[in-house]
Amino acid sequence: MSETENEHEAKMARPRMASGALFFDAQGRVMLLEPTYKDYRDIPGGYVEVGESPLQACVREVREELGIEPEIGRLLVVDWAPSPAEGDKLLYLFDGGVLSERLQAEIVLQASEIKSYAFHPVDEVDDLTIPRLARRVRAAVSARHDGSVAYLEHGQLP
Predict the structure, then answer these.
(1) Residues 48, 143, 74, 151: is their CA dihedral positive or negative?
(2) Do the Cβ atoms of 94 and 74 come closer than 8 Å?
(3) Contacts of 24 (CB under 8 A, 6+ apart)
(4) d(Cα 54, Cα 56) in Å, to the nearest integer?
(5) Where are the alpha helices (H) located in the chain, listed in sequence order?
(6) What confidence tens digit (pLDDT) does each residue in 20-62 have?
């Protein structure tokens, strides 16, 4: 590789990617998990592994964290969320749809990572999680309602 190619390679972004699902109950409330390792609520999901698509990661993370394999729907949000500690991140949020009572009864939480889950009205999300995730969840709910996909930066429309 030439020096110019090395310089170009060094400048290329290598963001971490994470993927999650937004699930609802029949009343339109959104599912939030209580992780064992965070002091705020989160959505089901996690980092994308090498060779895995964001959708595949979402399906895997839901299976690992909740023990169920519901059909995961369309992409709702892509959020560019750089972190001083971890570097650039691209976060994908997919539509998990409405979880039937049958599927809810089949949930088996990954005890090492998840204490509990509950469904919450969207207008309570700000009080339960960090601001950038709350903004991402609200944008995803709007995109789901509008049939659109939202592009965000730091959880906000640019």
Answers:
(1) negative
(2) yes
(3) 30, 31, 96, 97, 98, 99, 119
(4) 6
(5) 3-11, 54-66, 101-106, 125-128, 131-146
(6) 999 999 999 999 999 999 999 999 999 999 999 999 999 999 9
pTM to 2 decimals? Answer: 0.92
Contacts with 152 (C-beta within 8 Å, 6 or more apart), sequence order: 77, 78, 79, 80, 81, 135, 136, 139, 158
pLDDT in tens, 99-126: 999 999 999 999 999 999 999 999 999 9
* Distance of alpha carbon 20 from alpha carbon 136, whole angstroms: 11
Which of these, 110, 120, 141, lies nearest to 29 by C-alpha position?
Answer: 120
